[in-house]
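Is this the right way to post structure tokens for a design question? Let me know if I should format differently. Anyway, here goes:
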């Protein structure tokens, strides 16, 4: 009997592995757009396909897989990419993923839970726990593929997903290298505001407002949206808000499924990040880390402070001269240091 039980378990494990390898066949409950609807041109150097996979919360995630042409039958190093916070895979993360695939990496740009083409109800919810798990689910999927070396997997986090990717690297020891670009620490912004300007009393008042909104949402059976990038743009808007507008609200970066381009997150979602410091254990990250930021980015202080918390001789900081936060979204003026990123992942994954 014991032998029979072991055989049954082995068959179940093989079946599960095969399901993961054929992630693109798990999309029956999701409606995935098949036409190219990215904010960047399609490369003729890579093979692109839609895939899906599940996280530990049972949410099915939608992703774009980019495979270097001519390497389809090789075991490759792989990189999972997400961000910015409130964006979709058709924007910055897809551009990063496609470009790194052109440079020899199998890459995966995914929509976080509750957003874009990924599953999860209610829609437009953010959670530090679930968002961090999304990266580990991407590692699960990549590790199961026959064309990926599971010992050579890294991640990239853009903007708010920079801090989230560092939190994932603390917890998931399978991650061998992480690059964060123009990063936000979303928990820091949620609890302290921009430039750490919010005090304890202001935080309490914000919590009061958000909890009052919870009751309104519950009573109405719907969720109030916080709004994406402000539109129309006030004349006295800070420069970084104007930069966001220039990306999310214009042809440059607008996408119909992007939260930031449209109505934003559910308002009450911000509560989850007000009690969960993402970088509390950043000093315990053992894998290689590359922190990239723009010299003139309003968010630069978050990237530099995150770098200061890191330990070890495999951590690097790169500041891009003259670049603002959103220049690193779509390589405006050649701001994204792809050569530096390629060298970093070559060194730490290959």
């Amino acid at each position: 009997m014991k032998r029979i039980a072991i055989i049954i378990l082995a068959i179940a494990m093989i079946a599960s592995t095969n399901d993961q390898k054929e992630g693109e066949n798990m999309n029956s409950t999701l409606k995935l757009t098949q036409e190219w609807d990215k904010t960047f041109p399609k490369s003729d150097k890579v093979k692109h396909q839609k895939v899906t996979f599940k996280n530990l919360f049972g949410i099915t995630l939608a992703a774009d897989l980019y495979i270097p042409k001519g390497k389809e039958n090789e075991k490759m190093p792989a990189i999972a990419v997400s961000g910015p916070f409130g964006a979709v895979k058709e924007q910055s993360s897809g551009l990063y993923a496609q470009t790194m695939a052109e440079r020899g990496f199998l890459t995966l740009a995914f929509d976080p839970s509750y957003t874009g083409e990924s599953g999860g109800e209610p829609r437009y919810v953010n959670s530090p726990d679930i968002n961090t798990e999304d990266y580990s689910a991407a590692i699960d999927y990549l590790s199961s593929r026959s064309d990926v070396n599971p010992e050579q997997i890294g991640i990239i986090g853009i903007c708010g997903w920079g801090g989230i990717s560092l939190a994932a690297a603390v917890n998931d020891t399978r991650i061998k290298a992480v690059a964060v670009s123009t990063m936000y620490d979303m928990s820091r912004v949620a609890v302290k505001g921009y430039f750490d300007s919010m005090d304890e009393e202001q935080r309490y008042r914000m919590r009061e407002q958000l909890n009052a909104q919870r009751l309104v949402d519950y009573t109405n059976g719907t969720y109030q949206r916080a709004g994406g990038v402000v539109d129309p743009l006030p004349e006295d808007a800070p420069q970084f808000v104007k930069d966001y507008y220039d990306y999310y609200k214009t042809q440059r970066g607008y996408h119909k499924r992007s939260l930031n381009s449209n109505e934003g997150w559910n308002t009450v979602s911000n509560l989850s990040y007000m009690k969960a410091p993402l970088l509390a254990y950043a000093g315990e990250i053992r894998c290689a880390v590359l922190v990239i930021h723009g010299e003139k980015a309003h968010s630069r202080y978050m990237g530099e402070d995150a770098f200061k918390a890191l330990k070890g001789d495999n951590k690097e900081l790169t500041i891009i001269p003259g670049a603002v936060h959103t220049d690193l979204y779509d390589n405006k003026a050649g701001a994204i240091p792809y050569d530096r990123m390629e060298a970093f992942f070559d060194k730490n994954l290959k």
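Format looks fine. Someone answered above. Worth noting: The beta strands are 46-54, 60-68, 76-82, 106-110, 148-158, 177-181, 288-294, 315-320. The first helix runs from residue 2 to 21.
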